Amino acid sequence: MAVLDILRYPDTRLHTVAKPVAQVDERVRTLVADMAQTMYAAPGIGLAATQVNVHEQVIVIDLSDARDHLQVFINPEIIAHSEERADGEEGCLSVPGIYDEVERFARITVRALNLDGQSFELEASGLLAVCIQHEMDHLKGKVFVQYLSRLKQSRIRGKMAKLDRQAA
Q1: Which helix (H) or strand (E) covers residue 121, if one does?
Q2: Which of 4, 93, 101, 146 has a CA-to-CA distance to 153 between 20 and 30 Å?
Q3: How far is residue 10's CA from residue 160's CA, in Å, rounded to a whole number?
């Protein structure tokens, strides 16, 4: 396992649309293990393959306090959602230190493949529903700050550029 580099907004590679995984094999399982290690090290609660510059439809999530309940979604798709929506504060490992309100579906049903390549469906609400939608946005080439006003996006780009200059 390896800790991978996380792309930082406004890196244009974050806007690449991920392709479906053709086959769940050892390469994909290794990617998932590396993504999980990267997410835990960051630390975060979710990570999409796009964020580590792998443009395939893979996300990992772990909302547990003990960091021992990894959930893997390969080729995820939302097959149902509530009409009800909810606002919640979101952050992102690709936009460190930035948090803002984003409106999402309150409840979703997602279909995906697991690490064995088996299809499953999961109903989610609350933080899990938000996290799945957030990570799936990454697979579509969208970062949560794109839901914000142009002014906020501009300020965030400025903050990220300043962080990059300080790190250099």
Answers
A1: strand 119-125
A2: 4
A3: 8
The one catalytic residue in 26, 56, 90, 135 is 135
Per residue in 16-43, pLDDT (tens digit) is 999 999 999 999 999 999 999 999 999 9
Q: Check which CATH number belongs to the domain holding 152 and give it.
A: 3.90.45.10
103 is catalytic: no
CB 47 within 8 A of CB 14: no
Give this prediction's pTM.
0.95
DSSP string, 36-92: HHHHHHTT-SEEEGGGGT--BSEEEE---TTS---EEEEEEEEEEE-S-EEEEEEEE
Closest CA to 61 of 78, 76, 45: 45
